[in-house]
Amino acid sequence: MVITHRDLVLRTQTQESTIAWLQEIRVIPSDKECISCNNYQMRLVPYKKTFRWKCTRCSKAVSIFEKTIFFNTKMKLPQLLDLIYFWSRDLTQTKVKHELELNSQKSICDWYKKLQKLSYVIMRDELNDKIGGPGHVVEIDESKFSKRKYQVGRIVMSPWVVGGIDINTKECFFVEVINRSADTLRRIILERIHPGTLIITDEWRGYWGLENMGYFHLTVNHSENFVCPNTGANTQLIENTWGWMKRRIRNRGLNKNGDLSLIFAEFLFKSKYKDNVFHKVLRSLENSLEKINF
């Protein structure tokens, strides 16, 4: 379900219309039963500029956003949905601050981190998905994310990252590894790429023998050519992706352990769902508060 920003603005003019729209697309249930009163029906009632479910028999009340990342937010719901939409479209935090006319950027930073974590959870649960297959070409490359110094005397050691991208579908994967040994690379390939795929790599010896594992294999010698003159094989798509990722990391700053994994997860999430990122986030709200508690 593709939602444009104009659609979103028209649907979220008020808190009431926003709630009605979220019910329409089944992000919020249209009804709820009270667990304290033998499943007696609850009613949606206004509460502190938003709504909550309230039982007309025992008066038990629960937030409509209970157990979701929206729970206890101080931001108005239409404004928060705008923020999520802007994140889905890769607007910078500075631009979002301007668009939403916010005084502080901290809340935007906090929400971007929550959404990044939610991306990580979603992609972690979909790790069984493989890319490639007969008739598909997958480029594979490794990149070293060099160590950097942050704060006083603090060194953050960055790992090798092995990445692969299907040039037909643009589906991709990224895996952090301690080393790029043959055993490590073969395990990743078996876990992430369907047999019968044509795999293009550099001439690193860790990739030797892929033909014996059910794959077709072409190589390019990066010390001599960007494109193999004999076969046309190249890894330019995955290398361009590395460049984009490293620029993104420089812009955001890698300031604590785990940030790299979250950035890769966000990239994979947005690459997979494209124009449906915003809707996928909304559909993933159930129990999301607990899921991102790490």
TrEMBL record:
- List each copy of the ISXO2-like transposase domain by range: 130-270
What is an example of a Pfam family matching this protein? DDE_Tnp_IS1595
Matches recorded under NCBIfam families: transpos_IS1595
Name of this chain's protein = ISXO2-like transposase domain-containing protein
